Amino acid sequence: MTGRTPSQSAQLSRELIVTAALRLVDTGGWDALTMRALADALGVYPTAVHWHVGPKANLANLIAERAFDELSLPNENELTWDAWVSEAIRQWRAVMHQHPNVAAMSAGRLLTSTAALPFIER
After folding, report:
1. What pLDDT score does 6 carry?
2. How far apart are CA 57 and CA 92, in angstroms?
3. What is the pLDDT of residues 23-53, one digit of tens each?
4. What are phi and psi of 115, to 5 degrees?
5. Between vectors from CA 91 to CA 89 and to CA 93, what angle results, nearest 5°?
6. Residue ranges of the chain with pLDDT lower than 70?
7. Helix 46-53 crosses helix 56-69 at what angle (to 10 degrees)?
8. Where are the alpha helices (DSSP H) in the chain?
């Protein structure tokens, strides 16, 4: 992509990259997410994206973490265990409806995501 400037790279952040990556996955699926497509969407060079998030496998973990961040787990002290599980599943289902292409990708990352730890522990 032409027209990239050094100031665009200076404004780049991990948060901005993950947001753009999630948008690409939401609209086109996992196959639509390439470092080049992501860089083009952000108006930067692929090396700038790689500098902030590392390889694509790491980016996938960050996307899965973002999905878990959107999960609002119920208070385990206010519900019976089976009601808690039912509500947690409803919450996860709502997040997956917002990001349907993340479901298959994030399922294998459940144990490696720090954002998933509260879910796993409960």
Report:
1. 47
2. 22
3. 999 999 889 999 999 999 999 999 999 999 9
4. -70, -20
5. 70
6. 1-10, 106-122
7. 60
8. 6-11, 14-28, 35-42, 46-53, 56-69, 81-98, 102-107, 117-121
pLDDT value for 71: 83
Amino acid identity of residue 13, one-letter, is S
pLDDT at residue 117 in the model: 66
Neighbours of 53 (CB within 10 A): 22
Q: Tell me which residue of 79, 75, 74 sits closest to 92, measured CA to CA.
A: 74
The residue whose two tokens read 């969407």 is 41
Reading the block at residue 116, the tokens are 């998933």
Counting other chains too, the contacts that 36-44 makes at CB distance below 8 Å and 24 or more residues apart are 39/1, 40/1, 42/8, 42/12, 42/16, 42/17, 43/1, 43/3, 43/4, 43/8, 44/4, 44/8, 44/9, 44/12
The closest of 89, 17, 79, 71 to 49, measured between CA atoms, is 17
